Amino acid sequence: MQIITSTESSLRGELLKEFDPQTSTWVVSDLRSKFDIQSKLLEKNQAIHAESVLRASELWSLILRRLNFYLKPVSRDFLKEVIKSELAKRETSWTESSGASESLFEYINLLFPIFLNEKGEEGMVDYFERNENANRRWKHWYELSFDIFNSLLERGFVSREWAAGLVSHYGVSKKLFNRRLIFDLGFEFSYLEMDLIEQMDQWCDVQVVVPLPPWRDQFSSIYQAYDFFLSKNQPEKLKETTVNHVDRAIAAKRIQTNKFASSLAEIKNIVSEVRSLADQSVDLDKIALASPNVENYWPLLRRLLKEEGIPVSKAKVTRLHSFPSISSWLSEMRVRSAEPLTSDLESNQYLDNKKALLKVDRFKVLYKNIYSKSHLFRSKEIGKAYYTKNLPNEKDLSGYDFLAWSLQYWPKEGELEHLELLLSKLQSHGQLDLHLDFESWFRLLELSCSQIEITQVSGQKKALQILGLNSVASSELDWVFYFGLSESELSSRSSSAILSSEVDQLARDYGFYLPSPDESPAEIEIRWNLEHSSRNSFLSCSESDFNGDPLISSWLWIEMNERISHFMAESLPEEERIEFIKEKRKALSPKLTNWDSLCFEEAKDLLTLKNKKNPESEELLKRMAEDRELTEKKLFSGQYAGRVSASSIEDYSECPFIFAAKRIFRLSDLPSLDIDVDALTKGSFSHKLLELLLKRDGWQSLDDQDLESLIEETRIQARIDLADESLWPYFKKKNFELARRFIDFEKSWRADYPETESIGFETDIKGYIHCLTGELLKEASPEALEFSGQIDRIDRDEQGHLLIIDYKSSTASLRSFASWLKNNQFQLGLYSLALSAGLSPEVKGQVCAAVYFDLKKMSRDNGFHNIEIDTGLYRFDSKGGKKNKVDQLGLENFYSDLKSAVSTYLGGIKENEFWPKPLDPKECRKCEWRLQCRAPHLN
């Protein structure tokens, strides 16, 4: 065995120069390192052996299969699905949570060396008897994980992460691998792998790369396997190639630390620094940006780097599930196989317009809220298209059977290349002849679609490197920017209840060596990368993320910042030194980027920089002037030429944007079916029921059977949809009670006013309204808009006097007649003017009153009655008469003020003034259009 140690991270690059991929295998710990080494080897070789670079888990899985054909190493995700199915068989309430399988998998990963130890069970019994705290906190997890682990072994399912332990357990008693092995595992070196390497040394030529950082004592729990490994090998077997340790003074000069107020400032500063290096003719491929979570920052980074004109090595990729055909395919299968979601049904219906079976508005009404597969039949077309009786929902289903079912729905526009990638990915999770339940296979299919990346634009060569932390060590770089170094990003996230002190005790007292739950691989990776004698490194963090939430600087950043600050301040007087160190701890202002410069450019100069030419530039200049509020913004060209109604004018008075949302943007405000019947459906039904009731001969004496028959007829004529048929009996009962109370009220009223005759139901009003005067007109005019409406009910007496009635489920939100105009309640006033102006030709007579009919209280106390008209429709001493009565002059003044108020709003509608200007900003919280609105106080 040859052991090569190094105190510097650059050793991998040197060893690669001597590596022969045809006869040797380089063993690494992670996938990214594997890809990096393969890429470097392919730069020098046209082809390399498939086993030239392997992850440790792949090597041990390969050997395990040669030792035991029954065991089947599978992916983490596959195994979690198997664990879910195992937990489902157990009647334990504490394992029913959604994260139970995830936690159990972590416990098995941590404890499986004990499970494989012949003295493990006996030792743990003794341990729990001696440690009451551990017994209470995680003994139940230990027992369950031990049980599940053995069950998985019986079924032949093992994680690739357990392969090392299983190979060690069975023992490598013969030559199962005939290539030279180089183990370069970084800091992910375990006792199990130490044992295996020593076994493999009997059959293969083995070389081990051991990192020896000067700070390894700070991470003794992680480094203890290496310490034990080196102590077991005698000096004569040890060939140590040690690169001189980096001088701390030189390192301090090559490392810089910065802190910024926000993640945005941090990224902008990095981009500015890269631009500065590029201007100094530094090769871009010698510069790298690295972070524990690059993808969080990439959308912003990509935009800023594009504005700087800096090419990047990172390819532009799209995940497979983002393709419309794949998304629609997955949606269709979810609808067919499980409790359907509206999003799935909508996606499958409208991603491809040729598939749409319903208009969008109708679809929203029927399927915004669906709770079971039976609800698919709210539309016969949808139900017939998606309902599937015979699903392969057996608990024991092979991957091939699952694919046979799913591929019958594969979209015609789906690409075969995507299907090949998907099948390959599924195969990588576990062999398709293995058996799981239907839901598990479907979750694996969804996961595979989300993991496959399709390259849209390849990364550029000789470009800025965008890397993960574990790729830095093997890359030839002169400048590295480490960013996003917050405590949350660098700290490990263990969900187990096992403490590091307990791991130490198990190793010390029982010889059970487990990985420490407090490991921080990202921090160790950065520390190791900093041990480079010729590389400049920048470490940065921020005090808040992109959402403005606070972040805590990692201990790594704090330690490096303090070390460098003290070194740089050593030559200063003591007072200046203290102030210097304080300043180094403060957040900095970022340097300007090209993006910032563009924000301050004159519009014409900006267009020149962007190479925009006429006529495109003129339109852009106009829009830029509006964005900078140099000119007044206009939402629409020309003048509004649509239709208005009393309710839409009230909408405009409440807020112009509400009018625009409904009338111009045509945003649907139709109610959707749900477990309760919505107010609009209730209102439509009651209106139609009362209309049919008053039209029925002998309505005053209808018996219960006749009334029930009338309600059934109303349902047909009103075309009422219900979310579930089981709602109908209750809904029917409520309307039966309403109708019976209405009959009693009307009989009593008409006994007092026998001249009352109902002559109009849902009476249409059609005409025009003048925008300058508010007058209602029969004929069109250049200054008028089309006006329409519908009056719920019109009563008439023998003299031809008319009474307008508007049904309301409640009048709690309405004001008395004297306050109508103050509260912008125009409806009954405009209806009165419309009938007087002849906008409903079939209705003749003089309007003497207009009232709201409260169906909840069965009262008509809100409205106006003209006291100068002698009518048989009402008396002035009736309930509510005093506050509703008005003389002819008062009524004329009301009409005049009404037309004046309405004309103010009509002028704004005519001139396209639809910016959000709420009458009461407090009401915005209740507005159904608030998510689409751009009112300043909402953004």
Provide a descriptive summary of the structure in words.
It contains 36 helices and 24 strands. The protein starts with a strand and ends in a 29-residue tail after the last helix. It has 939 residues and is α/β, with parallel strands linked by helices. Strands 17, 18, 19, 20, 21, 22, 23 and 24 form an 8-stranded mixed β-sheet that branches. The protein has a 5-stranded parallel β-sheet with strand order 1-7-6-2-3. The chain has a 5-stranded parallel β-sheet with strand order 8-16-15-9-14, with helices on both faces. The longest helix is centred in the C-terminal third of the chain and has 25 residues, at 728-752. 46% of the residues lie in helices and 13% in strands. The radius of gyration is 39 Å and the shape is elongated.
Radius of gyration: 39 Å
Q: How would the global form be characterised?
A: elongated
* Separate helix tally: 36
User: Cα distance, first to last residue?
Assistant: 66 Å
The proportion of residues in beta strands is: 5-15%
Helix vs. strand class: alpha/beta
Q: How would you characterize the largest beta sheet?
A: 8 strands, mixed
Helix content: 40-55%
Quick one: how many beta strands? 24
Mean pLDDT: 86
Low-confidence stretches: 235-250
SSE arrangement:
Elements: E1 2-6, H1 11-17, E2 24-28, H2 31-44, E3 53-55, H3 56-67, E4 72-74, H4 76-88, H5 100-116, H6 120-130, H7 132-155, E5 157-159, H8 163-170, E6 180-184, H9 191-200, E7 206-211, H10 220-232, H11 248-254, E8 255-260, H12 263-279, E9 287-290, H13 294-308, E10 316-319, H14 324-337, H15 342-350, H16 360-367, H17 380-386, E11 397-398, H18 399-406, H19 416-429, E12 435-436, H20 438-451, E13 453-457, E14 465-467, E15 479-482, H21 487-490, H22 500-510, H23 521-530, E16 536-542, H24 555-569, H25 574-584, H26 594-599, H27 603-609, H28 616-627, E17 643-644, H29 646-654, H30 656-664, H31 679-695, H32 704-718, H33 728-752, E18 757-770, E19 776-777, E20 784-796, E21 801-808, H34 827-836, E22 846-854, E23 859-866, H35 881-884, E24 885-886, H36 888-910
Parallel strand pairs: 1-7, 2-3, 2-6, 4-5, 6-7, 8-16, 9-14, 9-15, 15-16, 17-20, 21-22, 23-24
Antiparallel strand pairs: 10-13, 11-12, 18-19, 18-20, 20-21, 22-23
